[in-house]
Specification:
CATH class of the largest domain: Alpha Beta
Family: Belongs to the ornithine cyclodeaminase/mu-crystallin family.
Largest sheet: 8 strands, parallel
CATH topology of the largest domain: Rossmann fold
CATH superfamily of the largest domain: NAD(P)-binding Rossmann-like Domain
Number of domains: 2
Helix content: 25-40%
Protein name: Ornithine cyclodeaminase
InterPro entries: NAD(P)-bd_dom_sf, ODC_Mu_crystall, ODC_N
Number of helices: 10
CATH architecture of the largest domain: 3-Layer(aba) Sandwich
Distance between the termini: 9 Å
Mean pLDDT: 94
């Protein structure tokens, strides 16, 4: 057998090969279009809860993406909400890529940053197709994990006039606002409560880190014509939220319709979000098979649980750039 080598990109390699905002969005939107055209395979994520009494679990995401990428991938990412107490991020992830023709392993990547970037990109691309083109006010709840890339990539597309952020701990929300203000070059307001963060906003993102379901985001705060993007692990929205929506869109219905976790789990169980009430998967809209926003008055909802396809596509983009820059490590496998 010929020697088998694996390309390994650690966190420092990912930082050295950093993609621009435009490159991140391009890679993710292309993968969504491929999903919409049926050029991918995605399996619903699986969960592993290893220990009782610990606020955390592992997500296992699996998929294949064709086209010029042609790679199968498995990502394992931990989601442990109390990690901040130990000075660690809440999520650690590893992405493994394989040759889909032989099963040969081809790459291992630190996926913590990739997870944050691809989630932010999916949020932004969902807004690109479902929010008002002239959206100028963003209300974002949540300050850890994927939150930074949500705001950064949304602002890249919309250039907001007002950005409000909120999280439970003052030090967390204030630090988040300061970081965003510095990086985006514009004021970012840290609010003291949910209502002042989201009421009247054109785009509302709910990325809270609740330990149990609790209706913190009130339907009455959502203005007509807004886009709401709820994707916390635990539901933080009222059951009535879906009643005001003109269009409800998800990233993958196979993932959203089942499982224990997810911001609209109660809405699925109550039949408020179903194959009958679902407008489309985002990939169908990106591929031009279903319409996105069609009027200024539409109040829309986009729920995404996270796609293995996005991890694979963004991982592939990083591998290409790392190779061009001679960044990374070559490990002997066999």
């Amino acid at each position: 057998m010929q020697p088998v080598y694996i390309t390994y990109l650690n966190r420092f390699d990912i930082e050295a090969a950093m993609l621009s905002d435009a490159e991140i969005l391009e890679a993710i939107e292309a993968s969504l279009g491929m999903q919409g055209r049926g050029e991918t395979v995605i399996e619903p994520r699986m969960h592993l809860e290893p220990r009782a009494g610990v606020e955390g679990h592992f997500n296992v995401l699996r998929g294949w993406i064709g086209g010029g990428i042609d790679a199968a991938g498995v990502k394992v990412v931990g989601d442990f909400v109390d990690n901040y107490k130990h000075g660690m991020p809440s999520e650690f992830g590893v992405l493994n890529l394989f040759d889909p023709r032989t099963g040969k392993p081809t790459a291992i990547l630190d996926a913590s940053g990739i997870t944050d970037m691809r989630t932010g990109a999916v949020t932004a691309i969902g807004a690109k197709h479902l929010a008002r083109k002239g959206s100028k006010v963003l209300g974002h709840v949540g300050s850890r994990g994927t939150a930074y890339w949500n705001v950064r990539l949304l602002d890249h597309l919309f250039d907001f006039e007002e950005i409000r952020v909120h999280s439970r701990r003052p030090e967390s929300r204030n630090g988040f606002a300061e970081r965003l203000s510095r990086d985006l070059g514009k004021p970012v307001v840290a609010t003291e409560d949910w209502r002042s963060c989201v009421e009247g906003a054109d785009i509302v993102v709910e990325a809270s880190r609740l330990s149990r379901p609790e209706p913190m985001l009130k339907t009455e705060w959502i203005k007509r014509g807004a886009l709401v993007v709820p994707y916390g692990t635990m539901s933080a929205v009222e059951l009535s939220l879906t009643d005001i929506m003109a269009k409800m869109v998800v990233d993958d219905w196979g993932q959203c319709k089942g499982g224990k976790f997810g911001s609209l789990r109660a809405h699925v169980e109550a039949g408020k979000l179903s194959e009958r009430t679902l407008h489309a998967e985002l990939g169908q809209i990106v591929a031009g098979l279903k319409p996105g926003r069609e009027s200024e008055d539409e109040t829309n909802l986009f729920w995404h649980r996270g796609l293995s396809l996005s991890d694979i596509a963004l991982g592939h983009a990083f591998l290409e750039k790392a190779e061009a820059l001679r960044v990374g490590h070559r490990l002997r496998y066999a």
